[in-house]
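User: Quick sanity check before I run a bigger batch. Here is a single chain. Can you write out its predicted 3D structure?
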Amino acid sequence: MSDRKRTESNGSPESRNNPSTPGVSAENSNGGYNAGMAVFSYIIGGIIVWSLIGWGLDYLWGTRWIVLAGALLGAVGGFYLSHMHGLTSSRNSTGKSGADSGPSADGNTNAK
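Assistant: Done. Predicted structure follows.
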């Protein structure tokens, strides 16, 4: 009995990564929330780090504009990192785009 997998009431095996959290689908338990938080972290982290570097260079060189350039560079760099990690793509779990799925549910009611 200890070697058997536990089953739900419908008879299917219970997956360990199937959370009971509302708003999270069973197919993709780490979903869009985690990807959104990662994108947010990359962008905010880039802005903070590069603004501090710019502030330090402004202090050393006696300028006032490098902190703004650092903040812009950090935002662009954070978005670039999130894009390269695949967090900003609009693909669904099957790898197809939404346009590949066929016509909309209303059919041809608006066609002339």
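The helical segments are 31-61, 66-84.

User: Great, the batch can go ahead then.
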